[in-house]
Structures are given as structure tokens and as C-alpha cells.
Amino acid sequence: MTTTPSGLRSLLILLTLGIYALSFFLPAWHDSGPVPGYEAFFMGMAYFIFVPFSIPWFANPLFAAAWICLACKAYTAAKTLGITATLFAASFLVIWQPWQRGGNVDWGFLFWCIAMVSVAASAHCLQFLTCQYDELARRALLAKQLRWRSKWDAKPHATPQRETSTAIRESE
Questions:
Q1: What is the pLDDT of residues 100-158, one digit of tens each?
Q2: Which domain covers residue 81, as residue numbers?
Q3: Listed residue (104, 67, 100) closest to 82, CA to CA
Q4: Has residue 107 been placed in a domain?
Q5: Residue 169 included in any domain
Q6: How far apart are the C-alpha atoms of 121 and 141, rounded to whole Å?
Q7: What is the per-residue pLDDT across 115-127, written as a single tens digit (0 to 9) for each?
Q8: What is the CA radius of gyration of the chain?
Q9: Does some domain include residue 12?
Q10: What's the pLDDT score for residue 158?
Q11: Which of 21, 55, 99, 117 gives 20 to 30 Å between its CA and that of 63?
Q12: Domains in the chain: how many in total?
């Protein structure tokens, strides 16, 4: 049985989703003008048929899968998917190279990448806390068992008397 503070898990889930949503409303990059995050999202979907240019966009479904795994307490899967989503998101800088086209990345892109990192970091923290809580629960259970055992050993227990030896002596 794994236990984590559900309030902390809910807070981290909402925080990662909030950062991701914020990236949609900030400018993602400047080319001939500012490109908002939601426009960059839909442009990535439009470039879906041109596979090399759509690789960074695949960070979005990976983020969604990581977020679902985080909500379902599958922390190892969420961490792996979050790291993979971060790498896919960062590949935008290598594939598109906006600085060579006279543009640059802006806050929306940075918050988009931070959302990818935050889902992986949240999964890692919750996995660590789960292990710590499980270890504390195991130790508490062991201490409780030891207390019961010491109480059991301290009580005088009625042991069956050997009446056969006295019965044998009386019959002789």
C-alpha cells in the first residue's frame, strides 16, 4: 500500500497543468512578430505530416500521458514520460533554429519547457515521498508488532500442568 499526501499530489498536478496552460497565452517565439503559444500548438499540428518538423510537437501528447500517469500514481512512468517530453520540447531549438531565421524564443516556449520539466520533477518528488511514507509505515507497523509481543511476553500465561505424573504417583 502506498501513501502520499493527496493534497500535495493535487497541488503539483494543478501546478504543472497551470504552467502548461499559461504557455498557451504567452508568446512562444518572435519571427516576423510574436507567435502566441496556442498558435504554435496548432502550427505544430499542421506540420504533423512533415515528420522532422513535428517532432517538438510530440512533447504535448507525452506531457498529457505523463500528467495522467501522475494523477494515477504511476510515478515512474510519469517521470520517464516527463523527461522524454522535455527532450522533445527542447528539440525545437535544434530542428527549427529560430535564431538563424531572425527570430528568438520567448516566455511561452520557456514556460512550455518548464511544464515538461515540472511534471517529471513532480513525479520524482512524489515517488520519493511515497517511498519515505512507506518506510515510515513499515517501521510503525513493526514497532506496533514489537509492543504487542512485549505485552504478550510480559503476561503470565497458564501452562498446562502435568497431572499425569501426580496421577501415576497416587496409583502406585
A1: 666 677 888 899 999 999 999 999 999 888 877 677 777 777 777 777 777 666 666 55
A2: 6-135
A3: 67
A4: yes
A5: no
A6: 30
A7: 999 999 999 999 8
A8: 30
A9: yes
A10: 56
A11: 99
A12: 1
pTM > 0.85: no
* CA dist 154 → 80, 99, 150, 166 (Å): 52, 78, 6, 29
Amino acid in the structure at residue 59: A
Written as one string, the DSSP assignment of the chain is -----HHHHHHHHHHHHHHHHHHHHSEEEESSSEEEHHHHHHHHHHGGGSHHHHTGGGHHHHHHHHHHHHHTT-HHHHHHHHHHHHHHHHHHHHHT-GGGGT-EE-HHHHHHHHHHHHHHHHHHHHHHHHHHHHHHHHHHHHHHHHHHHHHHHHS--PPPP-HHHHHHHHH-
State the residue for C-alpha cell 510519469.
78
pLDDT, average across residues 47-73: 86
In a domain, 163, yes or no: no
| Cα distances (Å, whole numbers) of residue 65 to 20, 87, 108, 136 | 13, 15, 21, 30
